[in-house]
Amino acid sequence: MHALLVEDDDRMAQALTTALAQRGHTVRRAARALDALRHVREAEFVLLDLGLPDLDGLELLRRLRTVCAAPLIVVTARCEERDIVQALRAGADDYVVKPFRMNELMARIDTVRRRTGALAPRPDAGPGPVRAGDVEVDLAGRTVTVAGTEVRLTRREFDVLAMLAARPEEVHSREEILDRIWGDAFLAASRSLDVHVAGIRAKTGRAELVRTVRGFGYRLGPR
């Protein structure tokens, strides 16, 4: 797999490049935001530092997500909850705080690639669109429309909504969703799932589209 490593620290970039190469990945390193934007379309997954010299990393993340759907993990020294929440809302698939254990990061890369690959649409994908009120979720086309107008969700937001829409009569536990989408049911104490559910509600303008089943999980809203 071909990785785009967006990292301005030479020592960190070298360590990550070596670790990725040992696992069979090819790596293009970009030390600046402009270089990342130039090469992101060729990437099969992205590692993104937020502390870049020419552009705030969160702004770069938003720009990358307009042109690239590849799995993306933020790897940064920023550990404030606000930064984590903003990155997840902007489309990051995972968030790793420096310093980190290299083996853990490699495992997270494998998990994100496996889960995002498993959720990618197949050429023969079905079934047809699922409707919930005036919201239509096209599972095959990975699009969402509200009252006929398309709404842009992040990849992870769509994955959560699609999981609920695929079995709209069922209640899905937090652990089930986290295991299916994030690949780790033990992330139940984190805010990642809550952040993405809030994003779905806000972007669609339909607070009841994702219904909370208190103490258990979520289900698709009234159909």
From TrEMBL:
Which residue ranges carry the DNA-binding annotation? 127-222
Q: Which GO terms describe its molecular function?
A: phosphorelay response regulator activity; transcription cis-regulatory region binding
CDD domains listed in its UniProt record: trans_reg_C
Is the keyword Transcription in the record?
yes
Which residues in this protein are found as 4-aspartylphosphate? Answer: 49
Spell out the InterPro entries in the cross-references: CheY-like_superfamily, OmpR/PhoB-type_DNA-bd, Sig_transdc_resp-reg_receiver, WalR-like, WH-like_DNA-bd_sf
Domain Response regulatory stretches: 2-113
Keyword field: DNA-binding, Phosphoprotein, Transcription, Transcription regulation
Q: OmpR/PhoB-type domain: which residues?
A: 127-222
Q: Which GO terms describe its cellular component?
A: cytosol; protein-DNA complex
**UniProt keyword Transcription present:** yes
Instruction: Give any single GO term for biological process.
Output: regulation of DNA-templated transcription
Q: Which PANTHER family match?
A: REGULATOR OF RPOS, SENSORY TRANSDUCTION PROTEIN REGX3
Entry protein name: Sensory transduction protein RegX3
Organism lineage: Bacteria, Bacillati, Actinomycetota, Actinomycetes, Kitasatosporales
